Amino acid sequence: SGYHILMVHADADARTADTAIQERINPGFERARRTGATSPELVEVVPIRSTDAWMLADEIALAVVLGTTMTRNELGLPPHVRDVERDLNPKSTLQQAIKQVEQRSTRRRRIDFESIHSPLAEQIDLNILLQVPAYERYVQQTHAVLIKLGFVRDS
User: Fold this and answer.
1) Is 91 helix (H, G, I), strand (E, B) or coil?
2) CA 23, CA 10: separation in Å to the nearest integer?
């Protein structure tokens, strides 16, 4: 009964995860601990700025989903994968990339911003996403909790 791991997502909406963890994640986690029959391990999922930043990491996956051969530079993405969370407005950057593709399209098709999330999640290369610091922290934290609970061995 109960659960072993509680994963909580909150976009940082800032340069660091500190405020999101302190103001949004920890209070919820403490409530879950007080009301739950078990004491779960917490895994924080806190993208810097927003999850949209992670969507900018793999330009090949993004190009496939958008149906284009445009490069990272042509799409207006940050120059390096590790820099996607430095983008002050990744949602706007993603919307601008979509606009660039729409303008270059010979079919003049419209791409719905919300419709790309699931296909991109299926296409994105997690090894590329590991270059994004907040995603790397999430993976490391998850791995440490799984080791602590005995679900995986330390490698």
Assistant:
1) helix
2) 10
Block residue for tokens 């999330």:
117
Burial class (CB in 10 A: 0-12, 13-18, 19+), 122: exposed
Contact call for residues 94 and 113 (beta carbons, < 8 A): yes
Q: Give the C-alpha distances (Å, rounded to integers) separating 11 from 1, 35, 150.
A: 30, 25, 29
Cβ pair 48, 89 in contact under 8 A = no
Q: Alpha helices, DSSP H only, in 56-152?
A: 59-66, 72-75, 90-104, 117-123, 126-129, 133-148
Cα Rg of the chain, angstroms: 18
How far apart (Å, rounded) are the C-alpha atoms in residues 141 and 60? 27
Residue 56 has pLDDT above 70, yes or no: yes
Q: How far apart are CA 57 and CA 51, in angstroms?
A: 11
Q: What is the pLDDT of residues 81-121, one digit of tens each?
A: 999 999 999 999 999 999 999 988 777 678 888 899 999 99
